[in-house]
C-alpha cells in the first residue's frame, strides 16, 4: 500500500448520501459515499466491493477501464478499510438484484476513490451471524458495534429516548438533572462510594435512583418531573442486571395511583409504537395477592396458563401426611396441571424435583393421570374423594401431570411459580411474539427479615401505606398494604412506582417500623424529613428500566446487547480494562489506603 501511495485525506470531498439510502430513484445520479469495506469479490476484470455505513450496504463496481489507478486501488482493499468513492448510480444487471438489501436494485460505477485508512486483521468478521465469544466481542466492542444488528438496536434506543422526552414534555413534565454525587443512604443494594478529597474520610455515593431528589422537586413545586437517568448499584449481577443502568424516571404532584397509571400507559404506547409494535390499553390489573396466588410470583408472565390451584381446603385431613401437615399448620397445598405431562420421563421429573429443591421445597409430589388410573408414589395415600376433589379443581384429564407443593405459602407459591415458568418454556407454551402487560398493585408494605430480625420495606421506605391500613402499622404491620404498583411485561418487571409519603410524621413512623430510630433517621434522611415539614403536596411516580424495555422490544438475549458499552457479569469493562489499579499518589490525595486481601 505504501508503494501505491494511496492514503489520502478527505480533502474537499463531501458525502452526498449514506450507503443504505440509494435506490432506483437515484439511477443516473452522481454520488459520493464514505464507509467501511464489508467484503471484496473479484470477478474476472471486475472488482465488487460492498461498502457499509450505519444506514446499510452499497455495491461498488470497479472496472479495468476506470481512469487512473482506481481499479488498481480496489485490488488492495481489505475488510474494514475506510474509503471514500465517487461515481454514478446505475441499475444492477438483470438477474443480479439483491432483494435482501434496500439498495439491492442499484450499484455504483466508481470513477474515483480515496483510501482514508487501512485496518489490522480482524479478530472476528463484522457480520451479524459471526459466532464469536462474548468476551471477545466486549474486548473489541468498537468492532462489535459495527455490526448492523447492534447499530440498529442503538438507533432504536435513541428513537425511544426521544419519543419518551417528547411525550412527557407534551404532558407537562419538566426534565431536571439530579446530582450524580450524592449522600449514601444504604437501604437495599450496596452503594458505589466516591471518596472526597476535600473532606478526608467522607464519601459521596453514586445514586441507586434519583428517588429523594425527585420527591424534593415535588416539594419545590415543580409539579411534574422526568429524567432519562443513569443509576448505579453495586450488587451481584445476572443476565438482566448491570452495575450502571438507565431509568426513565418520573414524578407527579397532586395525583393518585390512577393518574400515574393513565399517563404512563400512554408513554408505553408511545415507546412501543416507535418499534412498530401495537399495545392496547388499559392493561389488566392483578393485586399482589392474586399474582402470587395464581402464578406463584409477583412478576407473572400471563402469556400462558398453567395457573396454580389451591387445594388446601380440599386436602385438609388428607391421608397423605405431607398434605395434612401443611394444611393443618397454616401452610398451603397447591398444584399445577401440566396438559400432556404424563409423558414426562423419570429424568424430567428428577429435573423438576431439583428445581423445586433449589427454591426451598423439601420434595415434589407428582401424579400421572393415565387410562389405568393415577400413577404416583402418593396415590395410595389419597382417598377417592380426595382424588375427585383434585381432579375437579385442576381439570386434570388422562395424559396430564399434576405437580404438588405443600409448605408455607411463600415456599409453595415460589416453587410452583418457578416450575410453571420452566415447564412453559420446556413445552413451548409461551408465545414468543406476544406482548402481555399487567399492572401488579397492593403490594405488602413490609416483609420480615428472619436474619436481621426486623421489618424491611418491600419496595422502599418512602412508599405510602394504604390509608385504610394505617391503623395496622402498630398491630399487624405485615398486613399493611402499600400504594405501590409494578408494570410487568412477559414476566419481566419493566417499571415500578408508588404514591409517596408526603407527611413527615408518617415517614418517621415508617422509619421506626424499619428499625431506623429518630436519631439515625435524622442523620441519614434529615434533609427529606425537614423538606416534608414545609407543605409537601401528595405525589407519586414511577421508574421504567430502559435497558430491560429495549431488550424485550429487540428480543435480545441480554441487556448487554442494547447498551453501547456494557459491563460483564463480573462488573468489568473488557475494552478499557476497568476497574483498574490507580496511582498511589491519587490514593494519597484521597486519604485512602488499600487493605491487603486476607
Which structural traits does this protein have?
single chain; 598 residues; alpha+beta; OB fold (Dihydrolipoamide Acetyltransferase, E2P); BirA Bifunctional Protein, domain 2; Gyrase A, domain 2; 3 domains; 8-stranded mixed beta sheet; 5-stranded mixed barrel; 16 helices
Protein architecture, described:
The chain has about 600 residues and is of the alpha+beta class. It has three domains: about 20-115, OB fold (Dihydrolipoamide Acetyltransferase, E2P) (Beta Barrel); about 125-285 and about 540-598, 2-Layer Sandwich (BirA Bifunctional Protein, domain 2), CATH 3.30.930; about 305-430, Gyrase A, domain 2. About 30% of the residues lie in helices and about 25% in strands. The protein contains 16 helices and 22 strands. The chain has helices spanning about 70-75, 135-140, 140-145, 150-170, 210-220, 255-275, 290-295, 320-330, 345-360, 385-395, 410-425, 470-475, 505-515, 520-530, 545-555, 585-590, and strands at about 30-45, 45-55, 55-60, 80-90, 105-115, 175, 190-195, 205, 225-230, 245-255, 285, 310, 330-340, 365-370, 375, 400-405, 435-440, 445-450, 455, 485-490, 490-500, 540-545. The chain has an eight-stranded mixed β-sheet with strand order 6-9-10-22-21-20-17-11, with helices on both faces. The protein has a five-stranded mixed beta barrel with strand order 1-2-3-5-4. Strand 18 and strand 19 (about 455) form a beta hairpin. Helix 9 crosses helix 11 (about 410-425) and helix 13 (about 505-515) packs antiparallel against helix 14 (about 520-530). It is globular and about 95 Å long. The two termini are about 55 Å apart. The model has no long low-confidence stretch (mean pLDDT about 95).
